[in-house]
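Annotators were shown the component list below and the corresponding predicted structure, then asked to write short factual statements about the assembly.
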Amino acid sequence: MFYKANLLSPWTLLSLLIFCIFASPILIVLASLFGEYSDNWIHLYKYVLGGYVYNSFLLIIGVSTISLFLGIGTAWLTSNYNFFGKNFFDWALILPLAVPPYILAYTFTGLFDSYGTANNLIREIFSLNSEYIFFPNVRNIYGAIIVFSFTLYPYIYLATRIAFINQSRSLREVGETLGFSKFGVFFKLVLPMIRPAIIGGLMLVIMETLSDFGAVEHFAIQTFTTGIFRTWYGMYDLQTAMQLSSLLLIFITFFLVLERYSRNNISYTSGSPTYGKIENKTLTGRKNILSFLFCLTPLSIGFILPISELTNWALNYKLDFFEANFIKNSFNTIYLALLAAIFCTFVALIINFSGRIQKTKFFGFLSSALALGYALPGIILAIGIMQLFIFLDNNLSFLNFVFTGSILGLLVAYVIKAYAMSNTSIESGYIRISPYMEDVAKTLRASNFKILTRIHLPLLKTSFLTSIVLVISEVIKELPATLILRPFNFDTLAVSTYIYASEERMYEAAAPAIAIVLVGLIPIYFLTKTIRSSRPGKEN
Amino acid sequence: MLKIENVFHSYNQKEDILKGINLDVSKGEIISILGGSGSGKTSFLRILSGLERPHKGKIEIDDVLIVSENYFLPTYKRNIGLVVQEKGLFPHLNIIKNVCFGLIGSKEEQNKVAIDLLTTFKVNQYQDQYPNSLSGGEQQRVAIARALAPKPRVLLMDEPFGSLDRALRESLREETKLFLKSNRITCLMVTHDEEDALSMSDQIFLLENGKLNIQQKL
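Structure shown to annotators:
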């Protein structure tokens, strides 16, 4: 009911202002497609762009294949069978999400390079000299495929596991009575039924792969993100960097549309579940061991290996969490992340509250549009915001405030990236507040502001806190936007990890990397809670 | 006292759910509007309270215009009490704070008004407790006390006894009626329950096909 939105209400105006701030960096980037094309662009177009597209496609195909295999396989096993360690794998298989791809990439090279920990260890055990190398070079696109697959497969695991849990067991049984073998039932019935969930998870994997900067940069792979970074920092050509960003944005939009489409169709995956106690089949003997190993492999490569290597570095370096630089960078990170989390949560509150009091679909649309920010690569946001700030500095000099290089740019980028997280928390909090409370409060002379402060805010305390914690854990990992938009001489944990790793000072990278992974474990806790409460027949 | 003239309302701008409602209610009168689900009786109350805006028609209280095609007085300025079946108690506020929510004045004055009302509706012993520790009937008593606390010009009740068992229903009906009559508070109640309507009201209207078309004076 768009016609009902009161455009003059301060809540509507505030919401529209927020929308404009969110949209302007994207529009600025896209507008570059209609601007002038420099010689750099012609050079890139002739000699490099094909490589970016080829590498991006190769990454997508490789990462998708391995992630699908790992994600669906582990989800199927943990949802349907009892085997050794099943209860542990239930939640532990999500742990690799706490490790950003760039940190896995750093630990991978630390482990498997010619003089890396793994080769050294084997040589030491067998008293061999340094000419023996046991692991292939990982600093290439195949190494990157492994890195992305083993850190991102949990997106598919999560989506398909929830779908498997909610899938009707009786439908599978009917399939078997109709003459399908167990494999037939799996490939012709089970998988097609959860297709939207699989596609949803897969699109997230692809979008994250395309958005990454740290891992591909470390492996020296030419992709859009590294190209954008080099065009800007190497050639100082912002216009061409924006034009490249537009192409990447178009790519991402395609996958984003597919993800949203599959999310809308997810309801048919449920069928008519047999609620009540779910009896999983207990595996024994060889099947038991194979299932255990199948689940242990992605967990080992995606989480245990990097943590072990980081710990190894930390011990070698005599890890000092009280070292001045680490403390300064941690403070910067927490300060930025906390500010961003508070901003982001208030933005989500304003949009949700406006929708609540005006009861129009307009705000639902607005919120969905703003939530798409999670799919935007940090590097594109950074470029759009940078260009916007240059424009503001040139035209609003009377304000005596320099936008470029202030932390404002970082805050805008973080809020755009993390809005979806805040919105989910605040929206789910609002669902639990009966609209009758507002109706009655209005008749009790309560203004909108009083309803917000006296009723909604106290009832949204938990959602508020959840939103702040989730945004902090997201913001701490963000690398490319922070790298580009940070004020001069202002480092965060992610930036210092990147700088140490790019200078091959791996031992020193351990402390900030461990801190990032530890904070990344927080959303895992929330995800685990969600999974547990989604099992039919179990109490929330 | 309450004058409703030719009120039309629709949710989709295609089909009217209310088709020209006219009603005159005198001060202190209790009116019931009977109707099935989807008949528009809740929408009618929402329009009177200002939670919805009619697309046509005029409403006055004490000869003061509160809504017309060109004018709309917001809910919080109307001084109308509202009781809904779902109670709508604020779960984070204790009982006395719930009742004081719509009151102005010093804390002592607010507490005095609240305690008097809670005593009238026999729930004063729960004043420091939170809504979730009260039974459904006790919660509804608090909801009625809270709606009456700011001395509303009109009390609107939407299926106020709907979720209560028979014995509770009867006693609460009587207590509410007694209070409304002794304080000459005008009340408009919508319900699908004929017994509620018959026991509470001075007049009963039937809302059917968007029109108030049968009237029974008791």
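Statements collected:
1. The beta strands of chain B are 2-9, 18-25, 30-34, 56-61, 64-67, 80-84, 154-158, 186-191, 203-208, 211-217.
2. Chain B has six helices and ten strands.
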